[in-house]
Write a structure and sequence with these properties.
The chain is an alpha/beta fold. It is built from eleven helices and eleven strands.
Length: 280
């Protein structure tokens, strides 16, 4: 039995699907009791537990062989609360814990990266026997929500500017890498980057999207307006895109290729698999 947290989000759902496609039993942890047809459809056991309520976790981890810990994006409790879950995993005698981190967590100008860096340190000193860490780059899927608007207007808005690149990774490849870390031997104590095969600037992404849609697409610099926001999540987003604008967010695909046993999907591959109609 493999326990996956934040299973109702995009990453958790992708990991659950990939595990179930291999026939692995999965206990999918969600934070509130609502219908989860996307999880039930693949035969996952759905349970409700709070990531900040350690008392919930003795039952959640009972009989489990591994834990895949995903923390919700931009959550201020991550660095404080994740160590308690590692302690629960140690008490349960869990043989394997995989933490879903982020590429370059040491880039502490981004608060959510700094939080993941502290969680990685806590995992290393937690006493958990077999731990592994996955560090994904930004997802290719993050742009999917813009594509209908891009098809209509021919403009791709880039909050990270027009000059720097990102090594966008397909979420399906991230999920496949997670499956490898959860099920394969010989990887304990390892930290594994998951970056796409090439750094892509916004103008290059616009060119690829335009080719897929059959229309001209231009990239537009979506410069943030106004003072720094107040909420933790909004501050994280602003700091993240400011960092991307200045430095990009790129990495090598070689580690992910080794985990997958093949080349990671390109952004063109990602677009090809989407049900996008061509522009009229």
């Amino acid at each position: 039995m493999i326990v996956v947290t934040a299973a109702g989000g995009p990453t958790g759902t992708a990991v659950v699907r990939a595990l179930r496609a291999r026939g692995e039993p999965v206990r999918a942890v969600v934070h509130r009791r609502t219908p989860r047809p996307e999880l039930a459809a693949v035969g996952a056991e759905v349970v409700v537990a709070g990531l900040t309520r350690p008392a919930d976790w003795a039952g959640v981890l009972a009989g489990a062989d591994a834990l895949y810990l995903i923390w919700p994006n931009f959550d201020p409790d991550e660095a404080r609360a994740a160590p308690a879950l590692f302690a629960a995993a140690r008490r349960a005698g869990l043989p394997r814990v995989v933490y879903h981190s982020v590429l370059r967590p040491q880039a502490r100008a981004m608060p959510h990266h700094a939080a993941k860096d502290r969680v990685e340190e806590a995992l290393d000193t937690s006493g958990v026997r077999g731990w592994r860490v996955l560090q994904p780059c930004a997802y290719a899927d993050n742009l999917d929500g813009q594509l209908d608007q891009v098809r209509a207007g021919g403009v791709l808005r880039s909050p990270w500017g027009l000059r720097t690149g990102q090594s966008l990774v397909d979420l399906r490849d991230v999920a496949a890498a997670a499956v490898a870390l959860l099920t394969e031997d010989g990887l304990d104590g390892g930290t594994f980057e998951a970056a796409g095969p090439e750094p892509l600037t916004a103008p290059r992404l616009a060119e690829l999207i335009g080719a897929r849609l059959g229309r001209a697409v231009v990239a537009e610099d979506a410069v943030p307006i106004g003072d720094a926001p107040d909420s933790y999540a909004a501050r994280c987003r602003r700091a993240m895109f400011d960092h991307y604008r200045a430095h990009g967010f790129t990495g090598s695909p070689r580690v992910l290729e080794a985990l997958l046993g093949r080349a990671p999907r390109s952004y063109a591959d990602h677009l090809a698999d989407l049900p996008l109609g061509r522009a009229a």
